[in-house]
Model the fold of this input.
Amino acid sequence: MVNAIPVGKVDFMNIYPISFLEFIRSADESLYNYLIGIDKIEPIPAIFFNQLLDKFKMYYISGGMPEAVVELLDSGDISNVQKILQNILNAYALDFSKHADNNDVTKIGYVWQSLPSQLSRDNKKFIYKVVKQGARARDYENALQWLINAGLIYKVNLCSKPALPLSAYDDVSAFKIYSIDVGLLRQQSKLAPSAIAEGNRLLTEFKGALTENYILGSLIGQFEDTPRYWTSENRAEVDFILQLENDIIPIEVKADENVIGKSLTFYRKAFSPKLSIRYSLKNLKKDGGFINIPLFMADITKEIIAMNQNTELDVK
Done:
């Protein structure tokens, strides 16, 4: 007998990996209190900026998997963190055979294993032939959808036109896929957990894919809908565009302090958005309708947007 779900009696909740904000609350409560206490869009003093950046690099080692986070914060044993993450990846691979249709198990494995290769490409657009030589969409779309439904990957659609509502302009023929967790992606990609010892190298390796993955996870945890991305005939590509009520916000992601790029500038000239956001390792700064947000502040993006709106109201 199958137990029915009583209508109106059940609340559904999305559960995500531990965010950086949650990570730092356990790692350093005083830094956490400072971070959530920020109420103005102005540069962060160096003493706090540098501490937050160090903790952010630690987060790239464990990602948001609870067991990995606990191990890193309690023991600091990075080799054990590595083992935990690899065990999780191994368990996922075993789950494919337990829960998926037999005809799709091998294909799911191919798609899952292709994730680092997909993200190592310059534009990161999902290509079926990267999964397997000669692979076609009709043969692998079920496997791809299984991973999405299982909550192991995020799918980011191309937006053909940045207009309201964004969902009406999805180009279903073009998309990118990302991992559910930045720590798992790092482990799956065989990148050594050397962020602290090697400056910002881990943030910039892998063509910034880890940083894009981190930002995407942060945005999905805060906003109702999955962001899209936008491109214009090889002239520009905006990493993410987000609909917030009746505003469309273009988002650029940079993995370090080198923020030179033409895509966001191109978009702003073409569409004149009220607000544009760039995430980078530069300090918090507002310049007209543009805000630079340090990567470690991504989890309070909604609050920063609210600060900006309140500032505009005060000016008026």
